[in-house]
């Protein structure tokens, strides 16, 4: 039994949720997630290992990471005869919603910080030779010449970037507000 089948290399996300899993979880996570989604029932790590043809250690690593991301949950049953615990895993659909919501909040926070920075540094000059950027005050102090290369600095208009960031922030704020309303009404 190979620890990582070549099918892990072929994992391609098919929607936003799978994209989220693909970016944050280890290789094989999409394959395991899809198995649980298609089975529509709880599976043990032994069953998952057998169905996917991968080692229990690899399965366990993926399960714990998906659990940390609030994508999977488990139910523990103690076997009377052996005194061992068996874990039954399934998709945590409610937890996924909250995880995605929290992730969107993090992204919104970072976008707001970036927007504030761009607005504060609206007037920027850059050197076409070395690519360094200078705030207006720095460019003025150096007579609009790059102190490293001696090349004349060029003005960069950040208005388009700022407008794009403002649009992203507005849309994400609206999306979050809608999702919060849905959660509160359910």
TrEMBL record:
Keywords: DNA-binding, Transcription, Transcription regulation
Stored Gene3D superfamilies: RNA polymerase ii, chain L, Winged helix-like DNA-binding domain superfamily/Winged helix DNA-binding domain
Any one Gene Ontology molecular-function term assigned to this protein's record: DNA binding
One BP annotation, GO: regulation of DNA-templated transcription
Subunit organization: Monomer. Interaction with RNA polymerase subunits RpoF and RpoE is necessary for Tfe stimulatory transcription activity. Able to interact with Tbp and RNA polymerase in the absence of DNA promoter. Interacts both with the preinitiation and elongation complexes.
Alphabetical list of PANTHER family matching this protein: GENERAL TRANSCRIPTION FACTOR IIE SUBUNIT 1, TRANSCRIPTION INITIATION FACTOR IIE, ALPHA SUBUNIT
Domains: entry comment: The winged helix domain is involved in binding to DNA in the preinitiation complex.
Similarity section: Belongs to the TFE family.
Stated role: Transcription factor that plays a role in the activation of archaeal genes transcribed by RNA polymerase. Facilitates transcription initiation by enhancing TATA-box recognition by TATA-box-binding protein (Tbp), and transcription factor B (Tfb) and RNA polymerase recruitment. Not absolutely required for transcription in vitro, but particularly important in cases where Tbp or Tfb function is not optimal. It dynamically alters the nucleic acid-binding properties of RNA polymerases by stabilizing the initiation complex and destabilizing elongation complexes.
UniProt-recorded name of the protein: Transcription factor E
Organism: Fervidicoccus fontis
């Amino acid at each position: 039994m190979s620890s990582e089948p070549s099918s892990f290399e072929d994992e391609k996300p098919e929607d936003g949720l799978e994209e989220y899993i693909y970016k944050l979880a280890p290789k094989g996570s999409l394959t395991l997630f899809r198995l649980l989604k298609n089975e529509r029932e709880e599976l043990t790590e032994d069953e998952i290992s057998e169905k996917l043809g991968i080692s229990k250690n690899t399965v366990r690593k993926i399960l714990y990471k998906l659990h940390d991301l609030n994508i999977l949950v488990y139910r523990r049953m103690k076997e009377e005869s052996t005194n061992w615990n068996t874990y039954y895993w399934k998709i945590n659909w409610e937890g996924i919603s909250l995880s995605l919501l929290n992730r969107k909040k993090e992204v919104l926070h970072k976008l707001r910080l970036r927007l504030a920075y761009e607005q504060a540094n609206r007037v920027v000059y850059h050197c076409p030779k070395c690519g360094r950027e200078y705030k207006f005050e720095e460019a003025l102090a150096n007579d609009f010449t790059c102190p490293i290369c001696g090349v004349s600095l060029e003005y960069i208009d950040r208005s388009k970037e700022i407008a794009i960031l403002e649009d992203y922030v507005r849309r994400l704020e609206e999306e979050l507000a809608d999702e919060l309303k849905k959660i509160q009404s359910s």
